[in-house]
Design a protein that fits this description.
This protein has about 80 residues and is an alpha+beta fold. Helices cover about 25% and strands about 25% of the residues.
Length: about 80
């Protein structure tokens, strides 16, 4: 249950409606610019955190991708998820 995602709003909406369905469950693969402050804000809003930076998606920098949260150039691909 890994879902690619380019938009924070998409992931956030899925987590906020997850009590009605299983949309928020699973892992969300997103382009990410490492920023602890932004990660904390995401955790407060959605209770989701970075689970890992999957090796198979990070052998090369994600060129041309923008961070799904900040819009800045992405430095990694990250997996976000919530603990239930």
């Amino acid at each position: 249950m890994t879902r690619p995602c380019e938009s924070y709003e998409e992931m956030k909406a899925a987590f906020l409606t997850s009590t009605e369905s299983n949309q928020g469950q699973g892992l969300w693969l997103v382009p990410w610019k490492c920023d602890a402050e932004n990660e904390d804000l995401i955790k407060v809003e959605t209770r989701a955190t970075i689970r890992c930076y999957p090796f198979e998606h990070n052998q090369e920098p994600p060129t041309g991708k923008k961070c799904f949260y900040s819009g800045e150039p992405a430095t990694h691909m990250a997996l976000f998820a919530r603990a239930y």
